[in-house]
Structures are given as structure tokens and as C-alpha cells.
Amino acid sequence: MSIVAIAQAPTSDVEFDVGRAAPIDLGRAERAVSDLLEALGQDTDDEHLQETPRRVATALGEMLTPQPFKLTTFPNDEGYDELVLARDIPFHSLCRHHMLPFVGVAHVGREVRPTLAGGRSEER
What we know:
The protein is an alpha+beta fold. The chain has helices at residues 26-39, 52-63; strands at residues 3-4, 12-16, 69-73, 83-95, 100-111. It has 2 domains: 1-17 and 70-124, no CATH class; 20-65, GTP Cyclohydrolase I, Chain A, domain 1, CATH 1.10.286.
């Protein structure tokens, strides 16, 4: 099996608005971060922590605000039937379980087949 890189113009761009459940209250979030730091025994009057509640609240607000994205499709005019790769796709996200960020790059490979998106009927 060989690997093919596709260099074609997209046929369509569909924009997805991922929306938001509720607006972020940064003032309330900042107070909550300050309360958390104090509950953890930190002195929020310390010069090194004075701006931390604002910075943490702002950072979490940004990480919890999904960005709209465009799904781009490409025609298979060349009749590719081999593995197609999209590499080095940057991403960032937030573990909602631990509220910790993670960043990286993703690599996606897809074997091109003339089938439905759900796979072959015998696989469903």
C-alpha cells in the first residue's frame, strides 16, 4: 500500500458553529479561582499570585470557548484508492475531567473507498 498526498482544490467548505451552552462570567470565575487558591492554602495577596485568579479565569474561558471550523471536502477525481494522510494538524483542548490543557498535532489517515461514510455494509 502506498501513501498519497492530495493537492486538489476543495469542492465545498461547510462552516460548523459549535455554539456555547452559556456565556462565561469572568468576574465570577475569577472569584472562584481566588477562593480555590485560598482553600488550597495559598496567599492570594502574595505579589506572585495577585493576578493569578484573572489569568486562570481568562485562560479557562478561552479554552472552554469552542471555535467555529470549516469542514472541507475534496473530490476524488483522480480515483485514489490508497491511504490518504493529513499530517501535522495542530490542536488544543481541555480535559474537562481534570481541567488541564493539552496541545499537540494530529495525523489522520484514511483509506479511500467508494463506500458510505459508515463503512462497508458487512462491517455495520
